[in-house]
Design brief:
By secondary structure, the chain is of the alpha+beta class. The chain contains two helices and two strands; from the N terminus they run E-E-H-H.
Length: 71
């Protein structure tokens, strides 16, 4: 596992959370505790909520239109 911390709006954030939140990736993970001590279960729950919110808001890949005639 690799955990990358970035700064957004002057606050530290985990890169994997940002890309899920922006709808740029789908969750496919073997959960692992974060370096800050957040448990794997808690982190997975946070990611699932972020993904559901991104889907509902149709951001990133979740907002891409489905081409007509494609099955």
């Amino acid at each position: 596992h690799a955990f990358i911390e970035v700064t957004e709006g002057g606050k530290p954030r985990w890169l994997h959370e940002l890309v899920v939140e922006k709808g740029l990736v789908r969750i496919k993970t073997k959960p692992s505790a974060l370096p800050d001590g957040t448990s794997a279960e808690r982190q997975l729950g946070r990611l699932e909520k972020m993904q559901a919110t991104a889907k509902k808001a149709r951001v990133g890949g979740w907002g891409a239109p489905v081409p007509t005639g494609v099955r």
